[in-house]
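Q: Please design a sequence for this.
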């Protein structure tokens, strides 16, 4: 697992700045952050200097330290909570720069840009032995790589693990911005699975899909036998009248349909979602990831198109895939209804359903002991042959 630096140290700040980089890169203005407790003016100046030094060494815009959190937006408050900024102690010469270098070298490491089949740049990561069987982690739409870092770290001890961030929702590190809106269709998103495999020279892989990523993984398996097996975790499936949906699924579908209609609608909704109260429904330790697709009006509009395409896709048309599959859900999932996973497992020809008694939707991203054991047991039971191309 990744090493967690001691709180409040330059190493911890460097890790936090990298962890929130998807937000600080994409915001049109410098992100303001508030310290954990009020700081005197000279302490605030010292904290600002340290953040600027670390941010400069990381190649990131350093947030602006302000006196308190009262005027912060939801994004700024989420970044503030992740930084957990205190009055800095004495910092040795070069310590900030060393902290930045260590953070950059740590897992998951720098992104690799891989072109999608239609040319859209995809921010991708790879970890683990190059000669090991391959696993491609298909995360929830619009979520930064940090949300799956626990899965990647745990599986990369035994597998070559790949992942990427959703097309058109993340700015490359070179500051070129989001680029033109990409094709949001499920076909294009499932083709990204194959493009990422191509980018790392991998012919076959197991696809591990989380939430809406389960739909992408399922569609990729239906399109190509390069996906040799599947594990589908807390999938968010459209199944018509075959399975109920949670109130959350209905609410999100309505929101996505609204903001996908146009940029004016997305801008109006963004103003409401920028209020700090928007964080109240988000898990505090994950809020800086979960809020990314809502961070700007343009992101919200694109998210409506991308995730809307996933939530509207009739998954009943994808259930004849012959690959072995593990389908996992929980009785406590109030986000994606467990009945959807149960239906999918019943109708996939070679599926096994595991309906866990505990664990909510976000628990799937934690890759806790029971889930990791379950994933490894299934991976050990399936074969991912002929991984490398010649």
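A: Design:
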């Amino acid at each position: 697992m990744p090493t967690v630096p001691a709180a409040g140290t330059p190493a911890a700040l460097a890790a936090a700045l990298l962890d929130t980089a998807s937000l600080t890169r994409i915001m049109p203005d410098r992100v303001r952050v508030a310290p954990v407790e009020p700081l005197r003016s000279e302490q605030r100046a010292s904290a600002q200097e340290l953040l600027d030094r670390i941010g400069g060494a990381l190649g990131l815009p350093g947030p602006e330290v302000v006196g308190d959190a009262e005027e912060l937006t939801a994004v700024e408050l989420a970044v503030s909570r992740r930084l957990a900024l205190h009055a800095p102690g004495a910092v040795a010469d070069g310590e900030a720069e060393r902290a930045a270098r260590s953070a950059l070298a740590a897992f998951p490491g720098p992104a690799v840009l891989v072109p999608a089949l239609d040319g859209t740049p995809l921010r991708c990561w790879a970890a683990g032995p190059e000669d090991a069987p391959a696993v491609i982690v298909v995360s929830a739409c619009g979520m930064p790589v940090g949300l799956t870092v626990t899965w990647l770290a745990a599986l990369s001890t035994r597998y070559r693990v790949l992942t990427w961030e959703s097309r058109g929702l993340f700015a490359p590190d070179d500051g070129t911005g989001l680029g033109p809106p990409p094709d949001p269709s499920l076909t294009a998103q499932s083709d990204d699975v194959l493009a990422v495999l191509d980018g790392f020279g991998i012919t076959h892989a197991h696809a591990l899909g989380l939430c809406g990523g389960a739909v992408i993984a399922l569609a990729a398996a239906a399109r190509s036998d390069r996906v040799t097996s599947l594990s589908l975790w807390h999938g968010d499936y459209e199944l018509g009248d075959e399975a109920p949906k949670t109130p959350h699924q209905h609410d999100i579908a309505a929101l996505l349909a609204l903001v996908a209609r146009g940029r004016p609608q997305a801008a109006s909704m963004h103003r409401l979602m920028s209020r700090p109260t928007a964080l109240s429904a988000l898990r505090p330790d994950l809020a800086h990831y979960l809020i990314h697709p809502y961070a700007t009006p343009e992101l919200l509009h694109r998210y409506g198109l991308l995730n809307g395409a996933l939530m509207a896709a009739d998954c009943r048309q994808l259930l004849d895939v012959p690959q072995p599959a593990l389908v996992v859900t929980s009785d406590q999932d109030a986000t994606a209804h467990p009945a959807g996973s149960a239906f999918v497992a019943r109708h996939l020809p070679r599926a096994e359903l595991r309906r866990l008694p505990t664990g909510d939707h976000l628990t799937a991203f934690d890759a806790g002991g029971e889930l990791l054991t379950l994933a490894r047991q299934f991976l050990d039971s399936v074969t991912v042959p002929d991984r490398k191309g010649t």
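Q: Thanks. Anything notable?
A: Residues 324 and 350 are 5 Å apart (CA to CA). Residues 41-58 form the longest helix (18 residues).
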